[in-house]
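Re: that backbone. Tokens:
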């Protein structure tokens, strides 16, 4: 949210809370907390997605620490000839990132920060995934 009355002394206004994502100088605030990789468009039905930010806590039930800044999207059989499109915010991967694919190939557009996945397995019941780290 953004409050145009936001200032450093009073926050967003009457109760002095400060939840604006833009600071009084019109700069992004806490961008690491809200700017995350995500699938903008999927070529099939979504099955699973997650992103482990630098703020993700250790889950003792699993017994291992989750990989920091890991993003995964898994989706079902292709239902469109269009590629899956994943937004990759620079703030999360300032030094670049690695990509693993279930199948097919991908292309990254550095201008729009979009990763396009073109799966190759068109068999019924196929699952596709893209992992960033």
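Recovered sequence:
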């Amino acid at each position: 949210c953004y409050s145009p009355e936001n200032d450093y002394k009073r926050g967003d206004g009457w109760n002095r809370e400060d939840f604006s994502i833009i600071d009084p100088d019109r700069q992004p605030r806490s961008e690491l907390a809200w700017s995350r990789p995500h699938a903008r468009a999927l070529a099939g039905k979504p099955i699973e997605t997650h992103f482990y930010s630098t703020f993700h806590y250790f889950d003792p039930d699993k017994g291992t620490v989750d990989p920091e800044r890991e993003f995964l999207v898994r989706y079902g059989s292709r239902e469109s000839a269009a590629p899956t499109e994943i937004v990759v915010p620079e703030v999360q991967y300032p030094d670049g990132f690695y990509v693993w694919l279930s199948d097919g190939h991908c292309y990254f557009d550095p201008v729009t920060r979009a990763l396009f996945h073109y799966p190759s397995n068109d068999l019924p019941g196929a699952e596709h995934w893209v992992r960033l780290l």
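The chain has a mean pLDDT of 87. The first strand starts at residue 38 and ends at 41.
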